[in-house]
Amino acid sequence: MTTQAQYASIPKLGKVTIAVANALRDGTGAMGTLLTASPTIMSGTRVDKIQVQAVGDTLPGIVRLFLVKGSPGTPISSIAFSSTTATVTTASSHGLATGDLATVQNAMPDQYNVTNAAITVPNATTFTYTLPVAPTTNAIAQGAFSTIKAAEIAQLWREIPVTAATVVPRTITSITSTTALATLTTAAPHGLTTGDTVIVSGATPAAYNGSYVITVTGPSTFTYTMASSPGANASITGAYSVIKSAFSKAMASQFASDAGYLPLILPAGWQLRASTNNADAFSVSTTFVGDMQ
Fold first, then answer.
1. Which helix (H) or strand (E) holds 80?
2. Fold (CATH) for 73-148
3. If pLDDT is split at 50, 70 and 90, which confidence band does 293 have?
């Protein structure tokens, strides 16, 4: 039997958009939660890659990554609701206090899953939190939760310099479809590569519009998958914009000199958060695995 943690082979994706200026490096101020490590995997969640992309025009700046200490919760016995208030009953004393932040994962229906919800504690084995949308039934799968103390301070982990990026609308010649697969032909060579992200806007039918990861099929063509079939080729082609990649490297190459961070193992219940030092918008994503085989 191996003595090292074994992780699932299929990676998962954590993603957050940050757009509020926060010049602070002390772990306070506006941040987005990129990932909460599974509260049930005691060996931790392994982060293999981090990517930062400009959502719009940006100036040179800094994207900061922070680590926040969390704790796995006790097993959940049930989750019930009244309107938009969820009541969690735990199998044993949870040790929480009103104002702590709870993250619930893998509950069903999905409305019970929340990130950093402030809780109210009526007694030692229950707590409540507010749901964004009222469910229609009590939880049929309770999932698991982790908590972060209200006074917990995020610790600065990495600062990533980002370059200026300009998102310029480009001309489309045509958009056709086969069921939900769209083929877009550009008026000029696009210079893109498979895996780039584009924003299509102003097209009719509207199903063609949105943000998509593309597959390049030629110098002036690429495909992308829509949420549903538009039912017809585009009668109005609109325009497309390219989301510029400000940073995209596997951690093993970017942080090769940082022994002990290759890859990042996030302990159960901990969080990885992100902030930007100006008001430009960035999409920050991470590839991670955390389910034991």
1. strand 76-82
2. Elongation Factor Tu (Ef-tu); domain 3 (2.40.30)
3. very low
